[in-house]
Design a protein that fits this description.
Elements lengths: L25 H8 L5 H4 E4 L2 E4 L1 E2 L2 E2 L2 E2 L2 E2 L7 H5 L2 E4 L4 E4 L16 H27 L1
């Protein structure tokens, strides 16, 4: 379903993997766990969101400048550098991306924009469900 949504051709760039707090969908967690990685290794709770852990300032899956789970990476990673700006209530290109100018075309791709908004909606729904579950247990 979520192939390479946003194609990044800057193979030597891994800026997006540094100090990441990438939120994970349940489907991301299941996909990564099915490859033999435990949630304790790669995920942590951040106010109800499950986010990728960092190790020594980078994503736990970044190894020698490469993502060791690239085919299984989270949907958010497949959409990056497109992010949803809550304050502006719209999809933008993350200012932290050193190659942000190369991604302008994606801001007019309705399919990708829709996928990102659906992903944000799912993340919020899953977060709220976790918070509710924790309140009742």
């Amino acid at each position: 379903m979520h192939q390479d949504l946003v194609s990044c051709n800057f193979k030597s760039c891994f800026q997006c993997c540094l100090e990441t707090r990438m939120p994970l969908l349940e489907e991301d967690i299941q996909r990564i766990e099915s490859a033999g990685f435990s949630i304790e290794l790669f995920g942590e709770n951040d106010n109800g969101f499950i986010v990728l852990k960092n190790k020594d300032g980078s994503c736990v899956f970044l190894e020698n400048g490469k993502c060791k789970i690239y085919p299984l990476r989270p949907v958010g990673c497949k959409l990056y550098p497109l992010v949803y700006d809550i304050d502006q209530n719209r999809v933008i290109i993350d200012n932290e991306c050193p190659n942000k100018g190369a991604f302008e075309e994606y801001l007019t791709n309705d399919g990708i924009i829709e996928t990102l908004i659906e992903t944000v909606d799912k993340l919020i729904f899953e977060r709220n469900a976790r918070i509710l579950e924790n309140q009742t247990t």
